[in-house]
Every structure is written in structure tokens, then in C-alpha cells.
Amino acid sequence: MHMDSNAVDGGHLRAFIERIEKLEEEKRAIADDIKDVYAEAKGTGFDPKVMRKIVSIRRLDKHKRQEEEEILDLYLSALGME
Q: Hey, how many other C-beta atoms are within 10 angstroms of the C-beta on 13?
């Protein structure tokens, strides 16, 4: 799609771009904060890899989580790993 540059509202576009850039900066700062919390937890003896898995599981709704757990159990059983 080709647009005539005269048809683009530069000020409006710039405002969107600047908002996105600000949010990206905030996202990086939050990601750094999350890494710091995992590092702190590791320093007190917790396993960050397992904690990440728990966070991922808790993000799922109950039905989806149960479904995944049942499939995991089925697969582990098929591999003789129960």
C-alpha cells in the first residue's frame, strides 16, 4: 500500500511512536525488575527455573491447567516416567 506523504499526519504518527518508545522503555525496566526478583529468590535458595514454571502455570485458567497436567501425565506414563 503506497500512501502520499502529504496524506500522513506526522504529528499524530510521532505521538504514537513516542508513546510506544516510552512503553518499550518501561517494559525493559519491568523485565529487569523481574530478573532482580528471581536473582533474589535464587540467593535465598529457591530455584528460579521452577518458579518461572509456577508463574506460567498460574497464568493459565483452572480448566486449561488441568488439561495440560492430564496430557503431561499421559505423556510421562507413555514414556514410563510416571
A: 10
HSE toward the beta carbon, residue 7, CA cutoff 13 A: 4
Per-residue pLDDT of the chain (82 residues; tens, 9 = 90+): 556 656 889 999 999 999 999 999 999 999 999 999 999 999 999 999 999 999 998 999 999 999 999 999 999 999 999 8
Structural domain that includes position 81: 47-82
Total domains, the chain: 2
Are residues 82 and 61 both part of a single domain? yes
Could you tell me the maximum CA-CA distance found in the chain, to the nearest angstrom?
Answer: 67
Query: Residues 41, 67: one domain?
Result: no
Q: From residue 21, how far is each of 17, 33, 37 by CA, in Å?
A: 6, 19, 25
Query: How deeply is 38 buried, as exposed, middle or buried, from its count of CB atoms within 10 A (0-12, 13-18, 19+)?
Result: middle
